[in-house]
Structure formats: C-alpha cells, structure tokens
C-alpha cells in the first residue's frame, strides 16, 4: 500500500500544506484523488505531477541456479513542491520535485539484510520520472521499460568501506495486466473528501537477471510485484501506522490487504484490499470482510520497536485462511537520510487453506508506526 509518506516529505521539503476538504483549482496547488478517475496505460505508469506524492514500489523473491533464495525491495518516491514551478521558472536549477529511493536485499539462506537510501533533487538530471511512460531514476538507481519489460538497476554500498555489497540488474515481464485497487478509481485512506490515492499493482512479474552479493554473481529467476500510487493526502489524526501485505499464491491468485491502525487500537474502516483471481479479476475486500491477527512479535535491537512477526489473515467470505511468516525477523529499515520513517519491510512465506484445500505462497509485508506513532510525530 505504501501510503501517507507525504506527511514526512512535507516536513522535509517545507511543502505547502493543503486542505483535503475540496479539489484545488489554483494552478499553484495540487489536486486530490477523487472518484471517477479512469486509468490509461502505459501513460499511467509515468509520473503524475499534478498530485503531490507518488511512488513506484517493486518487491520480489528470486532464486539462483543453486537454490539460494533472496528477497528485494526497490522503491522510488516523488514529492512535488510546486505544481507548475518549471513553467514559471524553466531554469535547470529550478526544483519542482524531491526524489527519494530505498533499496533493500534479504539473503534468506545466510540470514543477512542490507539496505540503502537516496535523496535527490529533480535538477540537472540527478533524479526524475517521465510523465508518459515508466522511467524513474535517482542517481544510478533506475527503473525503465521498453513498453513491456521492466528493467531494474540498483546497488548498495557499505557505509564504512564504500564497497558494493549487493547489486541487481533485473528484467521483469508481466504475467498479468495492471490491477486497479479500491472502488470508482480510488483507494480510500480515510473518511475525508480527497483522503485517498489512485492505486494499482502489477502483482505477478516474471523476474530474471543478475544479482551480485559480496562480489559473487548469481543468475536468478523468480517473481516480483509492483505497486504504483499517486495522490495528495495526509495522515489522519487518529492513524498511527499501517500493515500491508502483497501475497502471490500458488493457485495463481494474489492478495493485497492493508490495515490502517488507529490510536485506540482499532482498525480504521478505510482499510481494504483486493483478491485477484488467476484470470486477473480484482475482487474488492472491505474492512469488514477480513481479519488480521498477530501471532508473535519481534523486538528490533536498532529501534526497540516491537513488531508482529507473523500474522493470520482470514477472509471468511472467500474461505481463505493464511499464515504469513517472515523468512527472517531482522528486515527493518531506519531511513534517517531520506524519508525519516523507521519501518519493517521484508520477504515472507505463506501457508494456509482456501476452501479447505491447502495453499502456499510468498510475498512481501510492510509495517509502519511501531517505532513511533506517525500521528504523534507530525
């Protein structure tokens, strides 16, 4: 789901704070995600500069020819500072957007986890995104496409020695078309008018390529997931964080769920998800149609945050019960140099039952607000 980071970006960038009570029409203000939006591809893979916040989130699991398993996350965030700044000031130094990027790698076999982060201004070609196609970059990290295949390139270096610890050069081929989440073209994040995003996923991307870890090159294959969201929203005053799941099941279906947690311990009614059928049909799942139950916890030695380390997901109306378990607990990112949010994002395995038949799968899970309630920070 990857929502609400615009709050952080607003603090970092001293951005203009706008009300969510109505769509803004001034050329110097951003628009909100409202019902009725019609997606059009490939254009909607690109940047939407009339919205303040946007992100492209890749995650996946791959294996080498010798069976070594890895998980990865590569994320690009765009935060708009002024909708039409470049038209008013065409200078190459004019800064209309900030870009952030996170790259993380989980070595499942060796129980190792690395991550890196970048922050750059969209000036002089240092970072940017095309508006009519999928092409996003921050320094030498990038995602590009030829109209069909997605190309991912990123590396992370040791903060002490500056040596390259890991590098990916992946090619991703869609096995399903883009899946739009929510209803009427929006994915709600709260009860207020405009408190939403336009959100779609490409939930099954066949992945091949080269993964280098500590100088050793692995030729890998596996499956990835892309989330792309854009909107102009802010964290609700009672929302402290969220839990997100993107799961690929072995019957060819996928499940995306997010739970927005409130400060009174309840789940926000805006929580929702999508159950995606093998033939790429999305079934909307409202907050009263699923249950999330934490089964165990893990305490981070870095942040002292106590995270749920495994979950049970139940969708009674679809006869689906899933247990979601991380491959390793230590998959936490402390992003002091970019978004300044400490969150857990990692590779998970899945087992359970669907219509009383055993089912398995894999995916990624994200949890925020456990190190520090987000509504208290901002």
Question: What oligomeric state best describes the polypeptide chains here?
Answer: single chain
Shape: globular
Task: Let me know the average pLDDT.
Answer: 88
Largest sheet: 13 strands, antiparallel
Q: Round the Cα radius of gyration to an integer and report it.
A: 20 Å
Measured by DSSP, the beta-strand proportion falls in over 45%
Order of helices and strands: HEEHEEEEEEEEEEEEEEEEEEEEEH
Helix-strand category: mainly beta
- N- to C-terminal separation? 20 Å
List the total number of helices.
3
Helix share bin: under 10%
Structure description:
The protein has 378 residues and is mainly beta. Helix content is 4%, strand content 52%. The protein is built from three helices and 23 strands. The strands form two sheets. Strands 1, 2, 3, 4, 5, 6, 7, 8, 9, 10, 11, 12 and 13 form a 13-stranded antiparallel sheet that branches. Strands 14, 15, 16, 17, 18, 19, 20, 21, 22 and 23 form a ten-stranded antiparallel sheet that branches. Residues 3-27 and 85-93 have low confidence and may be disordered.
């Amino acid at each position: 789901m990857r929502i609400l980071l615009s709050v952080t970006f607003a603090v970092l960038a001293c951005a203009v704070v706008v009300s969510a009570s109505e769509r803004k029409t001034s050329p110097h203000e951003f628009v909100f995600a409202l019902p009725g939006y019609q997606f059009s591809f490939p254009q909607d893979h690109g940047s939407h500069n009339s919205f303040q916040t946007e992100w492209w989130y890749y995650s996946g699991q791959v294996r080498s020819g010798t069976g070594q398993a890895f998980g990865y996350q590569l994320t690009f965030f765009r935060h708009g500072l002024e909708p039409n700044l470049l038209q008013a000031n065409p200078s190459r130094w004019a800064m209309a957007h900030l870009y952030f990027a996170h790259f993380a790698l989980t070595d499942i076999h060796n129980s190792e986890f690395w991550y890196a982060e970048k922050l750059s201004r969209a000036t002089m070609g240092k970072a940017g995104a095309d508006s009519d196609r999928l092409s996003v970059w921050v320094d030498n990290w990038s995602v590009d496409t030829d109209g069909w295949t997605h190309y991912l390139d990123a590396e992370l270096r040791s903060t002490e020695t500056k040596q390259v610890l890991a590098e990916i050069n992946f090619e991703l081929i869609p096995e399903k078309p883009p899946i739009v989440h929510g209803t009427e073209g929006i994915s709600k994040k709260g009860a207020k008018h405009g408190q939403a995003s336009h959100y779609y996923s490409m939930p099954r991307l066949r992945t091949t390529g080269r993964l280098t870890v500590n100088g050793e090159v692995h030729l890998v294959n596996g499956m990835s997931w892309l989330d792309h969201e854009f909107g102009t929203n802010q964290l609700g005053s009672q929302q402290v964080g969220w839990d997100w799941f993107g799961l690929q099941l072995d019957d060819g279906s996928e499940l995306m769920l997010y739970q927005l947690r409130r400060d009174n311990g309840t789940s926000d009614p805006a929580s929702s998800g999508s159950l995606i059928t093998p033939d790429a049909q999305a079934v909307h799942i409202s907050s009263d149609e699923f249950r999330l139950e934490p089964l165990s916890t893990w305490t981070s030695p870095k942040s002292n945050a106590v995270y749920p380390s495994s979950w049970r997901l139940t969708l009674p109306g679809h006869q689906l019960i899933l247990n979601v378990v991380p491959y390793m607990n230590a998959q936490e990112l402390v992003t002091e140099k970019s978004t300044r949010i400490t969150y857990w994002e990692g590779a998970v395995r899945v087992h359970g039952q669907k219509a009383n038949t055993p089912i398995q799968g894999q995916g990624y899970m994200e949890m925020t607000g456990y190190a520090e309630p987000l509504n208290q920070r901002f």
